[in-house]
Amino acid sequence: QIVSSRYKDKIDAEGVEFIGFALDGSARMKNLITGLLEFSRLNNITDVKKMNTNATLASVLESLEFYIKESNAEIKSDDLPELIADQALISKLFQHLISNALKFRNENPPQIKISVKKLESAYQFAVSDNGIGIQKEYFDKIFIIFQRLHAKNKFPGTGIGLALCKKIVEQHGGTLWVESEPNQGTTFYFTIPFKPVSIKKCPVE
Predict the structure, then answer these.
(1) CA-angle at 96, arms to 95 and 97, nearest 5°
(2) Cβ distance 117 to 123 under 8 Å?
(3) SS (HEC) of 121-151
(4) How confident is the prediction along the chain (205 residues), in pLDDT tens digits per residue?
(5) How far apart are alpha carbons 64 and 95 in whole angstroms?
(6) C-alpha–C-alpha distance, residues 167 and 175, integer Å
(7) Count of alpha carbons within 13 Å of 98, Cβ hemisphere only?
(8) ∠ Cα 49 55 58 (to 5°)
(9) Residue 14 is inside which H or E element, if any?
């Protein structure tokens, strides 16, 4: 950035282009490092208590307000139950899943639905969209850290988000999975047990 600001007017167009490559690369590396730190710090979080899930979702939607308006998205939600969980982690979980639904859209405005049903020992949540969908052979791959299905210039991101979601759910004793059809939308399902659990310490994979 210093080189760019001081010497941009003294170098040719090719040099300016190379500086742009360097700045872009450093910005992407910063995002990767930030994501890795967030991923690794999950091992040390133990703040499990009763939380208002509706209020948590409302806060997430407020933080995504710009992207919701920019894409003309319509978001609907069931009345969500109270959970005994880590509120900060559940907030990150919803944020990543809804952000993905807003990002991986087609020419139609996103239609996103957050629903829930009560199982025998857990709540099963679903975050559904009408976006570009995912081919079945990639269902497992998308939850592996740094695995991307699209070029970064088409859909920006670090490839950490869904790996983070999987780790959050599993640390709460639940399961995360996906159902999707290309060009027919995607639904991410996850379960959160009724009874409180201690956050599991998992090694970084």
Answers:
(1) 95
(2) yes
(3) CEEEEEEECCCCCCCHHHCCHHHCCCCCCCC
(4) 676 676 667 777 776 666 666 766 666 666 556 655 665 566 655 678 899 999 999 999 999 999 999 999 999 999 999 999 989 899 999 999 999 999 888 888 999 999 999 999 999 999 999 999 888 887 788 888 655 554 454 545 556 889 889 989 988 999 999 999 888 899 999 999 998 665 544 444 4
(5) 8
(6) 9
(7) 28
(8) 140
(9) helix 13-41
Q: Which amino acid is at 99?
A: S
Residue 144 identity: I
- Cβ atoms of 161 and 181 closer than 8 Å: no
User: Exposed, middle or buried, 175 (CB in 10 Å: 0-12/13-18/19+)?
Assistant: middle
Q: Are 131 and 110 in contact (CB under 8 A)?
A: yes
CB 185 within 8 A of CB 131: yes
Of the candidates 138, 127, 119, the one whose C-alpha atom is nearest the C-alpha of residue 60 is 127
C-beta separation of 163 from 39 below 8 A: yes
Tell me if 149 sits within 8 A of 178, measured CB to CB.
Answer: no
For residue 26 the two structure tokens come to 């450093």
Residue 48 tokens read as 């499990």
